Structure to design on (428 residues):
């Protein structure tokens, strides 16, 4: 547990000893959120195959607390879009995002989800940020599992800087 | 027909396909006919048919739109041909094709004989002003989706098709993207996805469920689950009113 060091308030009861630790609410809430991300995999192409490797034993995403893959958006707070998204699919992706409870974050994994990839045509969404807000983009076609893990770690850093005072976006 | 007992039983409970042969001729395997022999067979029956000179490697026979259905039936049912398999239907737009002076569109039907092993392509030229062809969905089941795809991408209307709606593009799409005058990077957003409930309800009805309210996923089994023992015998004997769905024109003959 890494908490931001906060000097104890002078009014804290010294007689309670180590039974209490004091910190800020943001540090505490963010610690919980960033270390227990529950990802929902929106996998449509080969990037999703790489993600299977990420959560499996060799790369073992559970070392970073994000291995509990949920297949219901209502139980997830991290949407990992791994693969090509067409305009025919776009309303489905949007609906899945809206079904996720706040707070929620989005990782766009790979070239197709990020920019449409080499599908520069009439039917492919040129980047899912046309449809939903994105927190972290991963490069690669498909990205290496290490890149997925780096994205999770970067997202953890981003969540650690969030403040509960700011209203979390709703439906973007 | 000395097949396993279950196959004739299931086949007898299916509604008869219009135009389908009731008896399957015994296979007469032989060497695939040469292209010249195939062409001669078709030309003997359809004198107007010519070989497409652009297809030097394979055999493409150009027929007129009026002859199309007869030609397809001939390919399918003639004992020497027996083209039981429709591999694909493809549309062509010759808008920017160098040196092309004939009709703008063409539709190509790819056939294969499972018995003899030979292949034939039928090509029909389609006028730009009235891009229409007769549907062959009742001759080959796969033509249902293939024709929908060809209409979706190229814009050739198949007369008589029971459910000519888009197959690949979304239902709010305007235009036909594989036409050469469609800007290939012009994107069209979809606001609400098509749940394809008409297809789902049709399938549920065929499985013995009744759909309580049209357009809603509200269904109740009226008899056992689809895998139940009595399923195979009952499929063809549903109440007639259960068979009339919201999509009345859709393919009701589908076997699951």
């Amino acid at each position: 547990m890494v908490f931001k060091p906060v000097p104890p308030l002078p009014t804290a009861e010294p007689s309670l000893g180590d039974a209490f630790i004091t910190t800020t609410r943001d540090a505490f809430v963010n610690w919980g959120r960033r270390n227990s991300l529950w990802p929902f995999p929106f996998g449509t192409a080969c990037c999703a195959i790489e993600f299977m490797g990420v959560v499996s034993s060799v790369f073992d995403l559970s070392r970073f607390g994000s291995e509990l893959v949920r297949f219901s958006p209502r139980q997830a707070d991290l949407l990992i879009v791994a693969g090509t998204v067409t305009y025919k699919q776009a309303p489905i992706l949007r609906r899945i995002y809206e079904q996720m409870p706040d707070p929620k974050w989005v990782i766009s994994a790979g070239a197709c989800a990020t920019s449409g990839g080499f599908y520069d045509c009439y039917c492919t969404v040129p980047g899912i940020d046309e449809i939903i807000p994105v927190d972290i983009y991963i490069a690669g076609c498909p990205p290496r599992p290490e890149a997925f893990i780096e994205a999770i770690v970067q997202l953890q850093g981003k969540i650690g800087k969030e403040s509960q005072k700011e209203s979390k976006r709703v439906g973007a | 027909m000395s097949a396993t007992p279950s196959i004739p039983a299931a086949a007898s409970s299916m509604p008869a396909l219009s135009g389908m042969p009731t008896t399957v001729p015994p296979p007469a395997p032989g060497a695939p006919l040469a292209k010249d022999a195939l062409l001669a067979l078709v030309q003997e029956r359809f004198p107007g048919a010519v070989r497409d000179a652009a297809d030097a490697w394979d055999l493409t026979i150009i027929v007129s739109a009026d002859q199309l259905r007869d030609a397809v039936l001939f390919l399918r049912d003639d004992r020497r041909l027996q083209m039981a398999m429709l591999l694909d239907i493809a549309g062509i737009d010759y808008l920017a094709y160098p040196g092309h002076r004939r009709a703008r569109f063409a539709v190509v039907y790819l056939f294969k004989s499972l018995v003899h092993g030979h292949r034939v392509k039928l090509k029909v030229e389609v006028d730009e002003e009235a891009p229409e062809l007769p549907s062959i969905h009742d001759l080959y089941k796969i033509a249902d989706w293939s024709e929908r795809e060809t209409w979706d991408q190229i814009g050739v209307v198949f007369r008589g098709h029971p459910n000519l709606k888009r197959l690949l593009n979304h239902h709010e799409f305007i235009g036909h993207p594989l036409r050469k005058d469609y800007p290939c990077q012009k994107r069209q957003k979809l606001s609400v996805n098509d749940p394809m409930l008409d297809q789902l309800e049709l399938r549920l009805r065929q499985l013995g469920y009744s759909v309580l309210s049209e357009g809603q996923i509200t269904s109740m089994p009226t008899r056992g689950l689809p895998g139940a023992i009595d399923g195979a015998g009952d499929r063809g004997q549903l109440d007639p009113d259960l068979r009339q769905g919201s999509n009345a024109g859709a393919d009701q003959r589908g076997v699951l």
